[in-house]
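#struct-help
A.M.: can someone run this one for me? Single chain, 156 residues.
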Amino acid sequence: GVEDYKKAVYDNLYNNSVTQIINTNSVSKSSEFPETLKDINWKDIQVGNIIRVKKNEIIPADIIILKSSSLNGYCYLETTNLDGESALKVKEAVGTTHLHVKSYNDLSAHMSIDPPNKDLYFFEGKMVIENPIEKKIFLGVENILLRSGTLKNVDW
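D.P.: on it. C-alpha cells below:
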C-alpha cells in the first residue's frame, strides 16, 4: 500500500518533468543550435526524438549521445540513482555525429540496439548514417546515457 503510493508519486513527478527536444522542422538564429528547442514532458518522449540535456539535469530516457558541448565529445554521467556509485562514468558522443553533423536537419540515420536489460554496464547497437554516404557505426556502453543518471561537467 504505502510502497505503491510512493512509487505512484515518484512516477507522476518524473513523468511530468520537462525536458527539451530538438525541433528538426524549424531553424533558429543561434550558432550553437541551428534548430529550435521545444519543451516536452518526459512521458511524451518518443523513440527518435533528439533530446537536449543540460548540466546537472537528470536524464529523461535512455539516450545515445550524438553531440556534447566538450570539444572532444566526452561527457560525464553520475549514476547514484542507478547503482549507488558516486564516481562519474566517462561517456562519449558518437564520433561521426559529434564531429561532422552541423545540423540535425541534415542527419538521416537509423539504429538497431539491444532490447532493455538489467545490466547497466553492457550495451551494443549499430547506427547507420544514410547521408551523404552510408556509414555503419557500432555503439557501446560508452555512447549511452541511462535514464535517472545525471549529466555532469559539461554544459550539454
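A.M.: thanks! The chain has a mean pLDDT of 89.
D.P.: also worth noting: The helical segments are 2-15, 80-83, 95-100.
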